[in-house]
Amino acid sequence: MNIGQAAKACGVSAKMIRYYESVGLIPAASRTDSGYRAYTESDIHMLRFIRRARDLGFAVAEIHDLLGLWRDRSRKSADVKRVAQQHIDDLHRRIEDLRQMADTLQALTACCAGDDRPDCPILAGLEKPENMQADSAKKQRSVSALRH
Question: Model-level pTM?
Fold first, then answer.
């Protein structure tokens, strides 16, 4: 099947298929006599694997490692679990970072009157170093907790 058909079959754009090939996630596709890429069912299966790993947030380097483990029938499941656990730990760190960002923005927006005046605590807060913003978010949470 050609690249367009392969893209449709696995839910990945043709551009991404070419990218995965360029970074070595998938081997170079065979070519037809006219020079078009030709994909097999095995290629489609691998592309679906990659798409699912991307859907779960794995980076290209992690997917490369997972593909290596997937192809290695003598692998240890502990090796696969280690990669997955590292990714879970990274996701939890990213979630916490997002929570802290949301808390900081919540604290800044709570201080903003949102009226016609030019004073804006949100813009003022963006001028402050990070640790001052985090302190502001903590104070806002403390105030909110006292109110409830």
Answer: 0.73
